[in-house]
TrEMBL record:
Domain DUF2828, first and last residues per copy: 63-448
SUPFAM superfamilies: vWA-like (SSF53300)
Superkingdom classification of source: Eukaryota
Protein name, per record: Uncharacterized protein
Length: 673
């Protein structure tokens, strides 16, 4: 059965196409043959009016390289799970979020938390999670507020004030601040005054020989000091003005927006409850039970506190007015001042000391007492330069202990490509050790038996997706067992199986970058080569490669006859290049359908299982939700690899998605509105 969509069906056409050429779509269950000449038009998101329509709706089109592809899995929740990646625009994310929530609210709530998940099977997509959280607050405020205790287990406690901050100042506030910071940095580089200050600090010997033409050295120094004093005073005044403005915004929002007030109160409740219990643990000497709430709780007069006025809310709950006689009869302002001060002195400071936070030792300049084995992974990546500068001998001694196995280094919260990216920063010592720790941690959970990675670094993957592809491909190669350990396939017109060479992480990544990648993505030829080797060696199905990880944006090259990717009308595009009825039917086979057919033709009942791992915001969908032997996953994190470490086969994409959100932490989530 085919479902016709006419241009008059305006209720179905709610969004415009993305930056791709025309998108040809057909629908209604599994596609049994080529679309007829008048069955489809070019649209983007098609929004079904009922859940049944959603379940039955399947669409087909072409990749950016003119290979047939599905444009939806047929399950909006799976579409959200597969298509939302770091870099997905807020508009696209919210569109997919709305469709998914209409289909299955609880599953969608779990998928939102899966975006944030730093541990388990989460994707570590912090920005995607924040965008989703703001949508939740707008559309389902009770569900967000009443799940806060559960939410922090997917990320960290700092997420709570950050959500409040973005609600007050806009979803793009961090992005805009980062842009402003970069522009200011560039302006300083161009400024003669700041350039002179930088050069004096870094290249004093050069400046000493420069001839001062216009003013004497004394006059120049006096002018610089005057400018510096005025600039500091102006900056101080501007900061104070901004702080007052932000405080007014927070107060007005709290007083006039009941949904924001409810969320704010719930955030304060979470922090206060945990801080009080941590104080109890501290008093009983049960330090190992203390949470990280104190680490991420905004400190008094911090940026969060000045913007949200949150420390007062937390302090009032930790030290309620009725709890102490000394608070009786005093003014509210004085009470607020007293409890804020107590929060700092009696709660946060002692808990910070017990947690042995590196920032405590750094701010006190107690470098020789800093416990490096307690430094978290992201903090180690951020502060390693300071450790090297201020405590070189102890820090290098610690790294040597890590190498010899006498000490450990954290790596859990880092993404694989972030570790590789930091190789250039300190000779690669810390990155090398963090990579080894990451591989070891994943390997302890299981091995990748009979698996191989295929890495797409074509032109469409330029930028971060390419870096992620290299990192995840290398990780899979190191987790794989022989005979595939240390090997990976590359995309090109002539794909090759490479043995990665090098004894260090730096050497391995350099080897991968120098390999002959080509600029195209012919998935068919990769599997043709696997099949050719199997046929020539007369391998049984048990001896075949079991699973292939495809790290890509899924914009595969066309494997059809006589194809050139040119602009044609949809009807002409559908008919082009196929002369017989059989060729026409095959013309609309997706890449995975072609792969399956080829293996059947050579006597194999099934092709290798495929994990399509999406790394870029793209519409292409290789298979539908119920395709056996295939998984659809996405993102930059290593965590989802753990889904494929156990024995047994992949059931289908929906099953893998359900497995990703099946942990105990997901069972605590509840939809309230």
């Amino acid at each position: 059965m085919q479902m016709e969509i006419s241009e008059s069906d305006s209720s179905l056409l709610k969004f415009s196409p993305p930056n791709t050429k025309h998108t040809t779509m057909v629908s209604a269950g599994q596609l049994l043959g080529p679309p007829t000449q008048n069955t489809a038009i070019s649209v983007d998101f098609i929004i079904p009016q009922t859940k049944k329509e959603t379940d039955n709706l399947l669409m087909m089109g072409l990749t950016e390289n003119c290979s047939p592809t599905f444009l939806s899995t047929g399950n909006p929740c799976l579409d959200f799970f597969y298509h939302v990646v770091p870099g997905t625009s807020s508009d696209d994310l919210i569109q997919r979020l709305e469709l998914a929530w209409a289909h299955d609210p609880l599953t969608t709530l779990k998928l939102i938390c899966n975006l944030r998940g730093v541990r388990g099977t989460g994707k570590s997509d912090k920005q995607g999670f924040y965008t989703s959280s703001l949508w939740l607050h707008k559309s389902h405020p009770k569900t967000l507020a009443l799940n806060l205790k559960a939410l922090v287990h997917f990320g960290y406690f700092k997420d709570l004030p950050e959500i409040l901050y973005r609600l007050l100042h806009g979803s793009e506030v961090r992005k805009l601040a980062k842009q402003a910071w970069k522009e200011n940095k560039r302006a300083k580089r161009r400024s003669p005054y700041f350039k002179r200050k930088r050069d004096e600090a870094q290249e004093e010997e050069i400046l000493e020989g420069l001839e001062k033409i216009f003013v004497s050295e004394e006059e120049e120094n006096l002018e610089m000091k005057t400018v510096e004093k005025i600039s500091k005073e102006q900056a101080r005044a501007l900061r104070k003005e901004r702080e007052i403005s932000k405080a007014k915004i927070a107060l007005d929002r709290y007083n006039n927006d009941p949904h924001y007030r409810f969320l704010f109160d719930c955030v304060c409740d979470v922090f206060a409850e945990l801080l009080k219990s941590d104080l109890e643990f501290m008093s009983r000497g049960e330090d190992f039970k203390i949470s990280l709430a104190a680490k991420w709780c905004p400190t008094v007069d911090s940026a969060y506190d000045k913007s949200l006025l949150i420390c007062e809310g937390i302090a009032r709950r930790v030290f309620p007015k009725e709890s102490e006689k000394e608070y009786e009869g005093i003014e509210e302002a004085h009470y607020a001042y007293r409890v804020r001060d107590r929060l700092r002195k009696q709660v946060l400071v002692p808990l910070h000391k017990i947690l042995e936070l590196p920032e405590v030792f750094m701010s006190a300049k107690q470098w020789d007492s800093l416990p490096y084995n307690r430094v978290a992974s992201v903090a180690m990546k951020t502060y390693k330069g300071l450790f090297e500068k201020h405590d070189k001998e102890r820090f290098e001694e610690y790294l040597e202990k890590v190498k010899s196995g006498k000490a450990t280094i954290a790596a859990g919260a880092l993404l694989p490509h972030e570790i590789i990216k930091s190789l250039d920063e300190d000779g690669g010592q810390v990155a090398e050790l963090q990579w080894e720790r990451m591989v070891s941690d994943v390997a302890k959970k299981g091995k990748l038996t009979n698996c191989i990675a295929v890495c797409d670094v074509s032109g469409s993957m330029n930028g971060t997706p390419m870096e992620v592809c290299v990192a995840l491909g290398l990780l899979v190669s190191e987790l794989s067992e022989e005979p595939w350990k240390g090997k990976l396939f590359t995309f090109s017109q002539d794909p090759q199986l490479h043995l990665i060479k090098g004894d260090t992480l730096l050497a391995k990544t350099e080897f991968i970058r120098k390999m002959d990648w080509g600029m195209n993505t012919d998935l068919q030829k990769v599997f043709d080569q696997i099949l050719e080797v199997a046929v020539e060696a007369k391998l049984t199905e048990e001896q075949l490669i079991k699973r292939v990880f495809v790290f890509s944006d899924m914009e595969f090259d066309s494997a059809r006859l006589n194809t050139e990717c040119i602009d044609l009308e949809p009807e002409e595009e559908m008919k082009r290049g196929w002369e017989t009825e059989e060729e026409t039917k095959r013309g609309w086979e997706t890449d995975y359908e072609v792969i399956q057919r080829k293996f059947r033709e050579k006597g194999y009942n099934k092709a290798p299982e495929v994990v399509f791992w999406n790394l870029r915001d793209s519409r292409s969908t290789p298979v539908v939700a119920n395709q056996t032997g295939v998984a659809l996953v996405s993102g930059f994190a290593k965590n989802l690899l753990t889904l494929f470490l156990e024995e047994g086969g992949i059931v289908n994409p929906e099953d893998v998605m359900r497995l990703a959100i099946a942990g105990e932490e997901y069972k605590k989530l509840v939809v309230y509105d």
